[in-house]
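Saturday, quiet lab. Running sequence design on the structure tokens for the scaffold JK sent over.
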């Protein structure tokens, strides 16, 4: 957590909601481990004769784009939908609300009870299951998920984005993937593998999750974070 100030001097809190991309990390079964390697090292640059009084390193990254804390564009489940490069920034910077749906067990669906009375129109809805505490363990794979009924409730409330602190927002054993198929068809973005959502419960905040502008990408990792307080 970091502190910042707006122009009027009011204190703002920046809360990192992102998992670190690194070898051995939790990921969807069957996806390759990410690789981050130098293609030009500080030692090579020092020996090259191209630099004086400084060195540099250039890095190559290789990973499936649905890894870490990542955002799904409509194209992920809609062949006619926008890809990552076509997303408007306004859809990635939103007033947020965090709904506490704890406690949940592995494989347990999130029902409609905690969602029925919330007003989340045009907001980023973040679902705190508490499952991020299992990140890096086998238990993380046996995650809670959004039930089909809960998907229907949120569709009627028309948020701009739905985020969750689990590996996948859907039941991985359900081939119809109701959350992905319905949200993305309606241009409701999805962010998965969030963390530290407990710190946002009962808080007013702005949610930011902006991916690089990558043509043709259906999903991409983001540095998701929240600004708690009045931004402007």
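Result came back. Writing it out in full:
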């Amino acid at each position: 957590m970091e502190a910042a100030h707006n122009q009027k001097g009011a204190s703002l809190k920046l809360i990192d909601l992102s998992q670190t991309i690194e070898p051995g990390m939790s990921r969807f079964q069957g996806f390759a481990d990410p690789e981050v390697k130098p293609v030009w090292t500080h030692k090579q640059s020092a020996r090259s004769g191209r630099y004086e009084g400084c060195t540099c390193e250039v890095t190559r990254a290789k990973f499936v784009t649905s890894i870490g804390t990542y955002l799904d564009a409509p194209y992920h489940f809609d062949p006619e939908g926008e890809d990552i490069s076509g997303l408007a920034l306004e859809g990635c910077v939103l007033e947020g609300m965090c709904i506490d749906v704890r406690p949940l067990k592995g494989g347990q669906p999130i029902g409609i009870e905690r969602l029925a009375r919330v007003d989340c129109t045009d907001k980023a809805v973040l679902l705190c299951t508490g499952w991020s505490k299992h990140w890096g363990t086998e238990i993380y794979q046996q995650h809670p998920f959004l039930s089909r009924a809960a998907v229907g409730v949120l569709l009627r409330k028309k948020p701009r984005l739905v985020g969750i602190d689990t590996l996948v927002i859907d039941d991985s054993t359900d081939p119809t993937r109701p959350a992905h198929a319905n949200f993305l068809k309606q241009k409701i973005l999805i962010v998965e593998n969030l963390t530290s959502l407990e710190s946002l419960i009962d808080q007013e905040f702005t949610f930011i999750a902006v991916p690089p502008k990558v043509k043709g990408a259906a999903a991409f990792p983001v540095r998701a974070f929240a600004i708690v307080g009045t931004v402007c």
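Notes for JK: The chain is about 10% helix and 25% strand. The chain has a mean pLDDT of 95. Ask whether to fix the surface positions before the next round.
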